């Protein structure tokens, strides 16, 4: 039973988890972009930032743009004229120039082009290729008279391809073994550039190898629960951390550029392309200009690609009211919000959350060409108030479009249907302990105000009942149905009102509750709460009061807990805990300690002076080489042991010290024995002589 | 009168002590000044303790005991090395020195452990 229940919960969860609404780029994005991208003091800090901002504006198509042309063009021209500019700077300047179209003559472009060609031939790393090839492609677009064709395009193509890894990712250079997803993106973009710059056709077998790499790269894509796909970048190195957003953006740009340049059908799976689009849209409005650029750049690549253009199904609102007879409306757009080709949207299935079974509908939505909205006139008859998951399918009318657009099969969308829940047959009664004998019974109007006043003793029972009926006449079970009794002294008791079918009923047997009520007699206010997210008339009502006459508390009865004065003191911050630490011992002044350090050294100086006075010498030190070596080793050994002691004091523990001391001791015993034996024998000789 | 004679006696006593000590072999004199060096070092540490208090008591103890222990060991060495001392006649001074070194190394291992 438990297993089945677990499976059910899992099944329901997967249904809910996979359903999410992704909305295409809209006007809120444009205004957010303006806030994010406006330069602080008339210009951006670098050409790279400038390009990212200008490109974002270009994609969004906002009319209002900061006026930075004069300042930026000066820096672009300076960079392009300077003979010492690095290829990265040239690349950024040319990218900015593509959008701003600063005044530059063809000779300037020709000079840069020849330099860049040398760079391409001498390039060693992927980034060198990327910047040089990218710059040449940009020059081709800006000055068509300049010759930018690469003679040895095949060999350049092979050199870039040589950096690819078996899993479809790329390395930054041949001496760097780490592979990176971001690098794969810029490598594909560079390869696309090489193909478009080649003076003769590139070998088709090379292109099909890269095609293979792309499909392997797509195999490594990661997936979120909501159907969004993204590329993760595991490599963190000198090129900096690339977030999943920038890595995915680079790959999308690379793949689409390669598809356009190679004029090849890459056979990319539509669901992954759609999943990537959902990933970029799922980011929402990014918090910084760089993420915004990556998001928009990738979406723009997806919008104008040859692979497959994702179509995004979105709903203006996911909450439908049965009372207002809301229509179900569905928009289908491309990622940047432009119109989709002629298509029809089908409502395939409706899952009611909480139950596994789906009702299969298969109904076409009508199209309103004026607002470009697909809509359903009337909701299906069996839709009651509650939360549902609707499954839609996009059907393209023109069979040619199926090759161009990715619709990704069925799209699941969570929908809340709200309605007015009828509350009736509400009554409250006080019974004697056997339910038959009704003392007082009053009917309530839960829609309006009530002021009933009842009285009861501990031998009686309070019964409250009402009925909830959903708009379609079914039983409705709200999230919350609580009865609250509140004593004058602010002691509160909350009871859950249970239900059987439509009827909600609670019976309070005061005899069993006296202890819970702390034997507090007096007036209790009665409050009833019925609430649910899909219930339009959720209420929290004061019903009136009941005068309870409870017995005197016995000796050992529990006292009512002290009531918090107000919510803020109950849920507010607790008093700060101050920790008490032992005060540190008083230390002597530093000067005194240093003086005594010097004083301690004084007897040692006295000892040395005394030695001098006694005219001590080292004449007895062995002269012959072998005993002299042993004598020196003996003294070095003692010095070593003493240094070991010093280390023991400073950082070593007892065990390591003893281990080292063992070895040093054996050595010291050996050399000490040799030295002292030699000294003993020489003094014995001296005596006998 | 009595006072001056007493001074004179003291002077004579000191003089005789000094002349008697002058005949002590040099190696014993070295040990003597070594012992004095150790004892003065210990005294200075005790003086420091008297001024600032004995807060890191283990450090104070190990410092003083290191000096006192060294002095005692040096005295033992002196007893064994002294040729006048007939009790240790058969013991070569090299053996005595080896004992001295060994005992010092063990003493200071304990001192370092206690130093904290």
TrEMBL record, chain A:
The keyword Membrane applies. Residues 311-417 form the Ribophorin II second domain. Residues 425-548 form the Ribophorin II third domain. Pathway: Protein modification; protein glycosylation. InterPro entries: Ribophorin_II_2nd, Ribophorin_II_3rd, Ribophorin_II_C, Ribophorin_II_N, Swp1. GO terms for biological process: protein N-linked glycosylation. GO terms for molecular function: transferase activity. Residues 581-681 form the Ribophorin II C-terminal domain. The chain crosses the membrane at residues 592-614, 626-648, 660-680. Pfam families: Ribophorin_II (PF05817), Ribophorin_II_2nd (PF23861), Ribophorin_II_3rd (PF23860), Ribophorin_II_C (PF25147). It is a multi-pass membrane protein. Keywords: Endoplasmic reticulum, Membrane, Signal, Transmembrane, Transmembrane helix. Belongs to the SWP1 family. Component of the oligosaccharyltransferase (OST) complex. This is Dolichyl-diphosphooligosaccharide--protein glycosyltransferase subunit 2. The gene is RPN2_0.
UniProtKB/TrEMBL annotation, chain B:
It is a multi-pass membrane protein. Pathway: Protein modification; protein glycosylation. Its main location: endoplasmic reticulum. GO terms for biological process: protein N-linked glycosylation. It comes from the Eukaryota. Keywords: Apoptosis, Endoplasmic reticulum, Membrane, Transmembrane, Transmembrane helix. Pfam families: DAD. The chain crosses the membrane at residues 33-51, 57-77, 97-115. It is found in: Endoplasmic reticulum membrane. Belongs to the DAD/OST2 family. This is Dolichyl-diphosphooligosaccharide--protein glycosyltransferase subunit DAD1. It comes from Nicotiana attenuata (Coyote tobacco). The gene is DAD1_5.
